[in-house]
Amino acid sequence: MKIYVDADACPVKQETVRVADRHQLEVVFVSNMAMRVPDGYAVRRVVVEEGPDVADNWIADAVETSDVVVTSDIPLADRCLKKGAAVLKPTGEEFTAASIGMALAMRDLSAHLRETGGQTYHAAFSKRNRSDFLQALENLVQKQKRAAPR
Hints:
By secondary structure, the protein is an alpha/beta fold. The protein has one domain (about 1-145): Rossmann fold (3-Layer(aba) Sandwich), CATH 3.40.50. Helix content is about 45%, strand content about 15%. The chain has helices at about 15-20, 55-60, 75-80, 100-115, 125-145, and strands at about 1-5, 25-30, 45, 70, 85-90, 95. The longest helix has 21 residues, at about 125-145.
């Protein structure tokens, strides 16, 4: 079991390493550019070529059933869910098979609104989001460990 992080704009790197260290899991930060990531038990950095969806493609190709993915990218979340991985937003909200369809539809609606001059609203990342993420990741890792074949 590993934790993959879509790292380019991820605000919860430190929290992810904290949970990974507690469970002695490898955490893989994937980005399009070199960046500083927290030190930890088994932290790995992967820097992919620049380009649209290159990091997403790398994660989607690497992820396996028992893994956890941290991302805000809805199409990446969908691809990882289809491979059986668990997916968590940095806000602590879990993407599930039941919620991904609505998330994709809302993403398309927001894109349409932007294209037609409408405005969309994105709330600022808060301390509460950070706390929610930390608890949700801990719970999700425990759930994945229980479900993993022995």
